[in-house]
Specification:
Blueprint: E1 2-13, E2 16-27, E3 31-35, H1 42-49, E4 54-62, E5 65-67, H2 75-78, E6 80-83, H3 95-101, H4 113-119, H5 121-125, H6 136-148, E7 154-158, H7 166-181, E8 185-189, H8 193-199, E9 202-207, E10 210-216, H9 222-229
Parallel strand pairs: 3-8, 3-9, 6-7, 7-8
Antiparallel strand pairs: 1-2, 1-4, 4-5, 9-10
Length: 231
């Protein structure tokens, strides 16, 4: 079943046009990497889905239903959770309180606070401490855990490896694969070669606001992958 589909999408910020005919699909349980150099429009794909960028042409469908962009405030209830670039842990709140913010009580599923603690035990240890007092890697685990609290059908991650040590990136990749194996589809926006390889199954390459290549990562050489994401 197709979860998310963009069909010939054009979108803009004000008068600045960014996406030019983007088409892509994500099926249930898939692991899809959206790759490309900085500034080519990858984050705008996400922003177009949640109404932060203005859709000027084309259609966005979720679970087979064409619709207006899902607004950020109700995306979780619709089955989409986003781990934004920079993690955006809420200052002044504990780990536990940050997790509660991600809850969508009307969405059934396996993910609750104890399930998140089981996946990331450090969050249980730090549950009553401030989320912003943790290391970058721990904050990324918290951001993912917060997103899982809504039991999403689709988890979108925007540059999750940013600022993380290689060993933490490896652990992150392993946890994302486990999530997909449990049925959560993943759209990974990323430039770290290792994480792309570890998590992605299919890929889309963006350049200048449009998709210029797609396929299976297994068929893409390391040299080709690097050429798509290196400045």
């Amino acid at each position: 079943m197709t979860l998310l589909e963009l069909d010939n999408v054009y979108s803009a910020y004000g008068s600045a046009r960014v996406l030019h005919g983007v088409s892509l699909k994500i099926e249930r349980g898939e692991r899809v990497a959206l790759i490309g150099r900085n500034g080519v429009g990858k984050t705008t794909v996400v922003n177009s889905c949640i109404g932060a960028a203005r859709l000027t042409q084309g259609a966005i469908s979720f679970m087979g239903r064409k619709q207006n962009p899902i607004r950020a405030y109700n995306a979780a209830r619709s089955g989409i959770s986003i781990v934004p670039q920079g993690r955006r842990i809420v200052p002044g709140l504990t780990v536990r309180e940050n997790l509660i913010l991600g809850s969508a009580p009307d969405r059934p599923g396996p993910w609750n606070m104890e399930a998140v603690f089981d996946m990331y035990p450090i969050l249980r240890e730090r549950a009553d401490g401030l989320g912003t007092a943790m290391s970058g890697g721990q904050q990324q685990m918290l951001a993912i855990g917060r997103a899982l609290m809504s039991n999403p059908d689709l988890l979108i991650l925007d540059e999750p490896s940013e600022g993380l040590a290689p060993v933490i990136v490896d652990e992150l990749g392993e946890s994302l694969v486990r999530l997909a194996e449990q049925g959560t589809a993943i759209l990974l926006i990323e430039q770290n070669f290792g994480l792309i390889r570890a998590v992605g199954d299919r890929y889309y390459v963006m350049s200048k606001g449009t998709v210029v290549d797609q396929g299976r990562l297994a068929d893409l050489s390391n040299e080709e992958l690097k050429s798509h994401v290196s400045v």
